[in-house]
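Journal club prep, shared notes

We agreed each person brings one worked example of a sequence with its structure written out as tokens. Mine is G-protein coupled receptors family 1 profile domain-containing protein. I'm keeping it raw so we can talk through how to read the token line rather than staring at a rendered picture. Sequence first:
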Amino acid sequence: MRNKLNATECAALREEVDFTDTHLLISLSVLALIIVMVIIGNCLVIAAVYCSSKLRSVTNFFIVSLAVADLMVGVAVLPFSATWEVFKVWIFGDIWCQMWLAVDVWMCTASILNLCAISLDRYLAVTRPITYPSILTHARAKLLIAGLWILSFVICFPPLVGWKDPKVSITAIISGVSEFCLTSSDTR
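Then the structure, token by token:
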């Protein structure tokens, strides 16, 4: 059974969390280290292509786009996911919950679409090595990248403007575990 929590109940659940528990802090520290590696690694990929003109190939445009999507996941999604996963409570408020879910869907969809674009690029390069440079030019690659970012945004946009399951509130729902930020498909 799902019960909508009021502000007092939410505050009480937050107060029950032991933010000084050593086990939880170690878990959060390990996740923070992974997040820092994600951020640094993707920044290095972007910097390498930006700094070296020899690396500015069509394929590397797709790789940079993938690195940007993964960097945004590392910056805007993973820190909040780690905190939620470790402490089992959403402490960042209703508005950020909705934004976090949208950014999560947007960046993960962009990452998946970038992988598809890389696959398409490699397929064309292998199956049509002679005509590949004329098929996938720098301009077409940039258009494809812009298109996949727009498509990924279109996919994440409807929940932001209110198109979601009316039976399930996005925040302040409890179903056995102290969680505040649930998607409409979350069954916990």
